[in-house]
Amino acid sequence: MKEVIFPKKIKNKATIAVVTPAGAIEKGQLDTTLVFLKKQGFKIVLGEHVYAQKDKGYIYGGTEKQRLKDLQWALDGDFDVIWTTRGGYGCAHLLQQLDLKKFKKKPKFFIGYSDVTVLQSLLLKSGFGSVHGQSIKMPSSGVSRASYEMIIDVLKGEKPTYTLSANQRNKKGWVKGQLVGGNLAMIYSLMGTEYQFDFADKVLFIEDIGENFYALDRMLMNLELAGVFKKIKGLIVGGMTQMGNEKNNKNYLQPFDATAYDLIAERLEKYDFPMAFGMSNGHIFDNFPLLLGAEVQLEVKKKVKISFK
What we know:
By secondary structure, this protein is of the alpha/beta class. It has two domains: 15-155, Rossmann fold, CATH 3.40.50.10740; 161-308, LD-carboxypeptidase A C-terminal domain-like (Glucose Oxidase, domain 1). The protein is 26% helix and 23% strand. The protein has a seven-stranded mixed β-sheet. The chain has a six-stranded mixed β-sheet with strand order 2-1-5-6-7-13, with helices on both faces. The longest helix is centred in the N-terminal third of the chain and has 13 residues, at 64-76. The two termini are 13 Å apart.
């Protein structure tokens, strides 16, 4: 496995740069999390355009130039952590223009999920790991305090270990490999580009929100036709929520939608690599951190154990 760099654990009074690389946020939406982080001893520095807005039929967190300027500032700066405010859409605009030269000299923890998956793929292809975890903005549906506390534990050098309950869709087995992936729609959007994940001998994680079931199947078929499932060593499935039509889906607000899970299991039925369903990561209340680029050990028996080296 190619060596991937994670920063050294943070020291007291570490500095967090906060940026909005995708969708816009409103003033006040970060306050609860920022107060919590300050109480933990962190120094918070907001990007110049963190609250900027640009309406182009979708409200972005500023123009492309503003979002690029803030993210480049964070990558280049003397910070310990870069923590994104939210996902949404817009990170793809920045991929071709980012310069990682200074970041390579001082790597930082990079935290986010959802649309931020595309930036995490860029970092990983450049040799840097990241934290796939809760953004600064709390979703309207809420998020557990533990989702933030466990990220702080990672920053302090702890490697998370998770035990998942039995799931009838699981496939037993044991494997270790580098963890890649994130939001399935973003993985799908990068396919065929120079920024797509390297899937060979990797453990793939997927999660998503707000997709029609046919769209979920289309994304899976894209990965199937691209040979992704022939390359990976294992699969971890996280949150699948608000899927399909709310009126017709009794599981619409559930974190692990049964119809989505059945669709994934059926689509991948012919493969014999270990599969684990029910990881608490994604657009759900318990959004516990995963380490993209780190070596993960996946053990699927009656219960599932996921641990990082």
